[in-house]
Amino acid sequence: MKSWFKQIESSEDGTRFAAAKVLGELTFDHQGLIPVVAQDAENGDILMFAWMNQDALHETIATGRMCYWSRSRKSLWRKGETSGHWQTLHELRTDCDGDVILAKISQEGAACHTLRHSCFYLRLDGDDFVISQK
Amino acid sequence: MKSWFKQIESSEDGTRFAAAKVLGELTFDHQGLIPVVAQDAENGDILMFAWMNQDALHETIATGRMCYWSRSRKSLWRKGETSGHWQTLHELRTDCDGDVILAKISQEGAACHTLRHSCFYLRLDGDDFVISQK
């Protein structure tokens, strides 16, 4: 674990740290990416999982609209730019070792490219997976 | 995207696929790992983010207790084995391209090694991050 996050872990609730410092201490992987979990700000559903590079993260924070890094297209992916399915950022968090982002968002339209509400529509049920949002 | 997941994406709700087939089509990265989001089955809070290899995933499904792969220790990490903070699996999902696992769990004690309820206790608030579970 990065020592900076270790250092602050016993701080009390309400302790503040400059965002620029925390963002600078985040761990990006060998491809320069950090995983991002997008959660529905209203009902807590996990909508999708994607990746950001530094630029995508800074753009997301600056604009309040989710911008990811597309690993397949190797470019910034402004979610909604082609589909109209924009995501508005409500809350951004990182975890105890600063290597994951949790974004609470509100979703215009569908998070999933299949037009389903959430990408996580395959649920294990006994010896099968079943297609099910619930 | 893996073509198998593409193939099944227009299937109707309730369509079933053998779990062994779906598990065999999941994408593990170049280190043999798949990301896992652990969500509180009751209140929807995101508790932690970790990784599984094939063995950890199969053990989790077989036992109903969360088993991850510890990237730092390079070994299976049976969550709770040393801390007593076991995680019981309630529901397991994968996403539209089969490269992430979502596990809805019930948590004994604390998910985070800091003894906080969730690892995501750093919330962006204006120009700061603030330590806050809420």
How would you summarize what this structure contains?
2 copies of one chain form a homodimer. Chain A is an alpha+beta fold. In chain A, 17% of the residues lie in helices and 36% in strands.
Structure, explained:
The structure is a homodimer of 134-residue chains. Chain A is α+β, with helices and mostly antiparallel strands and 134 residues long. Chain A has one domain (31-109, 119-134): Phosphoribosyl-AMP cyclohydrolase (Ubiquitin-like (UB roll), Roll). The first copy, chain A, has 3 helices and 9 strands; from the N terminus they run αβαββαββββββ. A 4-stranded mixed beta sheet of chain A has the order 3-2-7-6, with helices on one face. Chain A has a two-stranded antiparallel ribbon with strand order 4-5. A two-stranded antiparallel sheet of chain A has the order 8-9. In chain A, a hairpin with a 4-residue loop joins strand 4 (67-70) and strand 5 (75-78). The longest helix of chain A is centred in the middle third of the chain and has 10 residues, at 54-63. The radius of gyration of chain A is 16 Å and the shape is globular. The termini of chain A are far apart. Chains A and B meet through strand 1, helix 2, strand 2, strand 3 and strand 6 of A and strand 1, helix 2, strand 2, strand 3 and strand 6 of B.
